[in-house]
Amino acid sequence: MTRLPRWADLVLTPLISLVLAFGLSALVILAIGESPWLALKTMVTGALGSSYGWGYTLYYATNFVFTGLAVAVAYHAGLFNIGGEGQAAMGGLGVALVCLALPWPHWALALPAAMLGGAAFGALWALIPAWLQAKRGSHIVITTIMFNFIAAAALNYLLANVLRPTGSMDPATARFPEGTALPRLTDMAAALGLDWGKATPANVSFLVALAACGLVWLLIWRTRLGYEIRAFGKSERAARYAGISPARITVVAMLISGGLAGLMAINNVMGEAGRLVLNSVEGAGFIGIAVALMGRNHPLGILLAALLFGFLYQGGGELALFTQIPRELIVVIQALVILFTGALDNMVRMLIAPLFARRGGA
């Protein structure tokens, strides 16, 4: 097959995949007797047409950036980390324990400590599958999937029997101290003299996510460790020949991956809920896989893909509220996006490759 130019691989192929996914989604909407144009208009207006919609879109996108970066780091090492859901859930436990440990006087002190707690718990939850892969040959896909269920069961027990405040019937921790409340984008805009509008859950964690994108780029493409991760991911035999330890890279890459997934909790647990509740991750760990695939495992692509899925999440809520289109249809649209940008990616390449072959021949 003709090798595509880099711009076509990174931009044109995902764009065509999106057009195909949305085109097929329009046919599904028509099949249930609704208007695709009304659906698109409702989603765009609800997710991007106001500061309120943008706030929720950025809130969801923040979660997906962290989990997408987690998948990407592991992927560059040749590892398919499907345990982001469990690692993010355990990161929430780390954030909750840190926030409840002290009467924090200000968020500027609580946030770095919570980041360390979330990253540490997420990394430790990824350590066991990494060690099993490196030392025992257990497949990372199987073990990380299993650890998602173990994390969910462990949190259910802890929230119902250990961390639940006395007298409360809700399986959740106590409210975090007021000093841990993160500034929301509405507050930050007001401090700059701007009127954001209605308050939304989007908070300073979005800026942390942007910083994480930059740091992951530096790690993977500008450090010796990043070179070793990429070399090992391309060819284990060549990496061994170059003196790179497969066991060390497997463990280190998974620790970084799990830590990034655990960092998601500063947004949804610390920034939005103000306590740890059941199912706080809400599938963001699995969406991160699609975000990384669509973003070609590059931080910039992951940021753009996370914004797209944030748009789908917020726009889907608007569809359920203001049209007769069921919210479940958004799951169908997300599945189609994942299908075309992931599983059928080579199909799109085969469609456009002859065009570049003719251009090259000319």
Which structural class should the secondary elements be placed in? Answer: mainly alpha
Could you give the count of β-strands? Answer: 0
C-alpha Rg, in Å?
A: 21 Å
Strand content range: under 5%
Mean pLDDT: 91
Number of continuous helical runs: 16
Topology as H/E string? HHHHHHHHHHHHHHHH
Distance separating the two termini: 17 Å
- Indicate the overall shape: globular
**Largest sheet, strands/sense/barrel:** none
Helical proportion, percent range: over 70%
**Low-confidence spans: pLDDT under 50, at least 5 residues?**
none
Count the domains: 1
Structure, described:
This protein has one domain (69-328). It is built from 16 helices and no strands. It has helices spanning 6-31, 36-48, 51-76, 84-101, 107-136, 140-161, 185-191, 205-222, 224-234, 236-241, 246-263, 265-273, 284-294, 299-322, 328-343, 345-361. It is globular and about 70 Å long.
Keywords:
16 helices; mainly alpha
Topology, element by element:
Blueprint lengths: L5 H26 L4 H13 L2 H26 L7 H18 L5 H30 L3 H22 L23 H7 L13 H18 L1 H11 L1 H6 L4 H18 L1 H9 L10 H11 L4 H24 L5 H16 L1 H17 L1
Helix pairs in contact: 1-15, 1-16, 2-3, 2-14, 3-8, 3-11, 3-13, 3-14, 4-5, 4-6, 4-11, 4-12, 4-13, 5-6, 5-11, 8-9, 8-14, 9-11, 13-14, 13-15, 14-15, 15-16
